[in-house]
Amino acid sequence: MSDAHQNHASPLVRHFRQILLWPLQVMHARVREPRISKYWELLEAMGEQCPWREVADEFGDPDDFQERHYKEFVTFLPYVQRFLYGEGMGREGPAGYGKSPIRVYRRRDVARMRVVLDEQSPPVVFEVAHVDLYFFYDIDIIILAVEFFARDLPLPLAQDALFKLGRAYPAFWEADGQGGQCPRRVEWLAATGETLAVSDYEDRRKYLNFVCRHRSPNIAAHWDYLLRPLALYHSDREGVVRYRQIEYHRMPLLAYLSFDDPRVLTRGDFARLALVTRPGPSNTLPYSERELAHFERKYCYDKFWNPTDPALGSRYLCCGHAFVLVGQAHDRFFTDAETGLLGQFRHQYFLVNLIAHFHKATLMLFSEWLVTAISQLDIRDVDSVKTFKRDIRRIFETFLRFTHRYWFHEVSNQAQAKDLFRMLTGHLDTDRIYRDVSEAVKEMEHYLDSDGLRRQANTVVRLTVVTTLGLIATVLTGFLGMNIFDHANEPAWVKLSIVVGVLIPAILLVFYGVAKSKVLSDFLEALADERLTWRDKLGVLFKVRGKRP
To answer: What is the DSSP string of 333-372?
Structure first.
């Protein structure tokens, strides 16, 4: 074990629990193919071959509905309740007002996770509680949630686990070839002890080649296995759904740590937990004193924490990327899995974090869609312009549905949940991102409206010019119809010649009017301008010959 992990003076984490949340973007096989609203149906179509099974909600059987479920439900405001749980008819009927737009699928073949954190540490085995995949109706975002736990871990080892385990791929490599800031080895184990998948952070050439070929990062082998039959975008492996990374390579996380006496933790310990840094001596800080001058105010929720009061022994830490709950192992309220803070951590606080990270991932997705639409626009190409308008209208419609179905400024009126959601979204900066995306979408929609009005105005101008010129032909035909010239007794070929002689110039006049409608409209406008002389008015007319339609 490393020196940090061998520090016998370090307090033990009696109960260590971590939940990783990994938002991913769902990709289409073809850019212009119709969007899919229910991606989970592609998993269900695989039948028994699919390792994912839908999680039945707790509202099916009243006899199985527990107080924990009730407390979780009443934590949230009514519109959030409908988002999370549906209403009335539950899971029946269309995915509209009465049905939750969330679907959760779980794989049960992964029972444990065996981890070697560094070259000096023995393997650590974590029990895997859940491996869940969250789908959202009509939104191209999925979230992988992995929950695991262990007991009696030294604090430095727990800090190292928080720091290293949620890495989708290495950001760099150490001198010995190991993935930088990544575990040396991660294994998914079945209940029988069989190894299902092994990490490959050390395979530098794999990651380099993939980025070189596809301009997109690859992911570690054990994460690739966990998401199957979904497949990474650009990968050679077949998959029913394609996905790609949308955020940072470090996955957002929640952590629960219980100690015999959490008051022995130093300011440096709390800072490392809150900011998810690598372990270090307790008497030091992970960053400079100036950087952490406002640490307690920015990252700590101390409504239930007082080092001098035994009754206030629970501390919440939040930096956006991480949500950490620290408390006393002998406090039944803190450790109770049904009605205590452990139960709230796994359910209420998990859902608060799920909503916040879903918001951020979706807003980043909208931003990417807008950038892609703009980058592919070529105003000289008619087809490109049409595609751009179609994409912007689709983005605008989807953003409206997201705003009214998924976007919440507040999730609860309960003071604690309300404060923590505000703290979390403040660090994630989702309100600002929402405003930026909303303004960008509205600007694009305004452009489409302005362009439509401009085209309508041009059409009216052309119709006005054509109508004006058509009056000439109308007057001419009307003049001929007054029988001033008697052609009744003329041969048929003469009558036909007269008709053709009038019709062809009239048609040519109309076509010419359409072709030169813009310049002719300028002449008509000049003709009506009393400030211009006849010389100036005729000058505008003579410009018709020199301009292209």
So the answer is: HHH-TTTSHHHHIIIIIHHHHHHHHHHHHHHHHHHHHHHH
- Give the whole-angstrom CA distance, residue 17 versus residue 256: 5
* Range list of H helices, 90-233: 155-164, 204-214, 221-227
- Rounded to whole angstroms, the Cα distance separating 2 from 184 reads 13
Residue found under tokens 């950001």: 171
Q: Is the dihedral of CA 79, 85, 90, 95 positive or negative?
A: positive
Residue that wins the pLDDT comparison between 63 and 214: 214
pLDDT band at 497 (very low <50, low <70, confident <90, very high): confident
- Lowest pLDDT segment from 16-20, 86-90, 116-120, 391-395: 86-90
Go through 218-251 and write b for each residue having 16 or more CB atoms within 10 A of its CB, e for each that does not: bbbbbbbebbebbbbbebeeebebbbbbbbebbb
Q: How far is CA 335 from CA 17, 100, 201, 255, 342, in A?
A: 12, 30, 35, 14, 5
Sign of CA dihedral 477, 481, 483, 488: positive
Other CB atoms within 10 A of residue 327 CB: 25
State the Cα–Cα distance between residues 219 and 248, nearest whole angstrom: 12
* pLDDT over 50 at 31, yes or no: no
Are 80 and 98 in contact, with CB atoms under 8 Å apart?
no
Tens-digit pLDDT profile for residues 4-25:
454 447 899 999 999 999 999 9
Q: What is the pTM of this model?
A: 0.82
In one letter, which amino acid is 197? A
Classify residue 490 by its DSSP letter: S
- Domain residue spans of the chain: 12-57+100-331, 452-546
C-beta atoms surrounding 202 within 10 Å = 16
Residue reference for tokens 């930088």: 180
Who wins on pLDDT, 529 or 341? 341
Q: Which residue has the tokens 């699919």?
A: 50
CB 52 within 8 A of CB 42: no
Name the residue type at position 536.
D
Length of the chain: 549
Cβ within 8 Å of residue 394, ≥6 positions away:
35
The model's pLDDT over 168-224, given as tens digits with 9 standing for 90+, comes to 999 999 999 999 999 999 999 999 999 999 999 999 999 999 999 998 999 999 999
What does pLDDT average to over the chain? 84
Tokens representing 361 are 């991932």
Q: Running DSSP on this structure, what letter comes out for residue 62?
A: G
